[in-house]
Design a protein that fits this description.
This protein is α/β, with parallel strands linked by helices. Strands 1-8-7-6-5-4-3-2 form an eight-stranded parallel β-sheet. Helix 9 links the parallel strand 7 and strand 8. Helix 8 packs parallel to helix 9 and helix 9 runs parallel beside helix 11. The radius of gyration is 17 Å and the shape is globular. It starts with a strand and ends with a helix. About 2% of the residues have low confidence. The structure holds D-xylitol-5-phosphate and zinc ion.
């Protein structure tokens, strides 16, 4: 597997102190910051958008190389992810991870009577190309109800620019921190790792010291943890232990 990457989710940070929370989390040993963007539509919760990302970005040094320490890993739990690529690039997002489900849903498909109305829907491959052309890494996320098989065509296509840099396998239903880890999702990670030894595979939801072993065994190398890090007495110790487990 590629190197372990620990990406604390700032969803569980103190939103009134986000800038310093981000800086402190990096000092405590985090590699990336996982930034959950929710629109109250794709998921039943809202967080914040590009203007807030712009402000907190200035509290953390930009990664020396894309994907390096300080990477802003923006998990876009939003409808119409193609609409926000340039805004998030300008805000300082380094990795734009959209949901497969959001990229394939189209107004025309849901409402045949409306099919003449152009919705400017983008295919996952086109969206990955667009993210890359705008200068960010691209990630693609799948919810628990989505089969991993939908990703094979996207991962195997002959156009390198249309292949994702990371796959995010959700291990909870997206929307909230602090939910119970769904081990039922780990076979997706195993299947991805078998086919792609060098792919960044991220897991998100319910990860902590009690669940990291299973996720690491399945082959995940990018570990998101919100409540387990921000709710800990010693967040640095949790970050170090998560890393140790993935690396062993
Ligand atoms: C859930 C978010 C997660 C969340 C994880 O929709 O995508 O990133 O912050 O929180 P924990 O680690 O507490 O499950
Ligand atoms: Zn997330």
């Amino acid at each position: 597997s590629p190197p372990a990457i620990i990406a604390p989710s700032i969803l569980s940070a103190d939103f009134a102190q986000l800038g310093s929370e981000c800086a402190t989390t990096i000092e405590r040993g985090a590699d990336w910051l996982h930034v959950d963007i929710m629109d109250g539509h794709f998921v039943p919760n809202m967080t914040f958008g590009a203007p807030v990302v712009t402000k907190i970005r200035s509290h953390v040094a930009k990664p020396a190389t894309p994907g390096g320490k300080g990477t802003f890993d923006c998990h876009m739990m939003i409808a119409e992810p193609q609409k926000w690529v340039s805004e998030f690039k300008s805000a300082g997002c380094d990795l734009y991870c959209f949901h497969y489900e959001a990229a394939i849903s189209s107004t025309a498909a849901k409402d045949p009577a409306n099919s003449s109305k152009t919705t400017a829907q983008t295919s996952p491959r086109e969206l990955i190309r667009y993210i890359h052309e705008s200068g960010m890494k691209a990630g693609i996320a799948i919810k628990p109800d989505t089969k991993v098989d939908v990703l094979w065509d996207i991962l195997e296509n002959e156009e390198e620019i249309e292949r994702p840099d990371m796959v995010l396998v959700m291990t909870v239903h997206p929307g909230f921190g602090g939910q119970k880890f769904m081990a039922s999702e780990l076979p997706k990670v195993t299947a991805l790792r078998q086919r792609y030894p060098d792919l960044n595979i991220e897991v998100d939801g319910g990860l902590g010291l009690g669940t990291i072993d299973q996720a690491a065994d399945a082959g995940a190398n990018v570990i998101v943890a919100g409540s387990a890090v921000f709710g800990a007495k010693d967040p640095a110790e949790v970050i170090a232990k998560l890393r140790e487990t993935v690396e062993k």
